[in-house]
Write the structure tokens for this entry.
Amino acid sequence: MNITRKKTTQSKRALEILATLEHLYPEATCSLTYETPVQLLVATILSAQCTDERVNQVTPNLFARFPDASSLANAPREDLEILIRSTGFYRNKAKNIQGACQKIVSEFGGEVPQQMEKLLSLPGVARKTANVVLAHGFGIIQGVTVDTHVKRLSGRLGLTKETDPIKIERDLMTLLPQPDWENFSIRIIYHGRAVCKARKPDCDRCKLAHLCPSAEIKSTR
């Protein structure tokens, strides 16, 4: 396949990438299964260094026993650890989940706060988790969720030269319209899973290849 890469400004390329992703993944949404903001918070904490698929296998039993902040805050730590063990780093995750829920109960009336600074005060919650909870739990767009897929693809696509998630987020926020910050994250995650994989990106079937300075296309005549 022959390809001609467009010479465009970084901001224009970002908008073209966004439009292409919206066309490719029109139904893309958060992959985690949850019913309430606190369940979304817990599922997102569990997703660290773990697949969403695995988290979704664990949370039904977890939430059946401990469905809300109060029950999670008062759960026996050992029980939590057993229920979430397969997600990895289960001791630290159980500690953070319980600490976050205890603070939600004691300081926020049992409800997940809807402000970034308050979310960031919870144990185990950094900007990635806070952005997911605000966007999908409350429809509030305050940033770009930067996970491993977003980090990898944003670099490959030439949208950032940074490696720190906070700096990557800052770069993406300057290139994309605020209403589309989370739309971009969700769709780039889908693309990272399906096409632009970590070990072997499939550039030959990538619909973003003409916009990607890292694309390696095998020419055919």
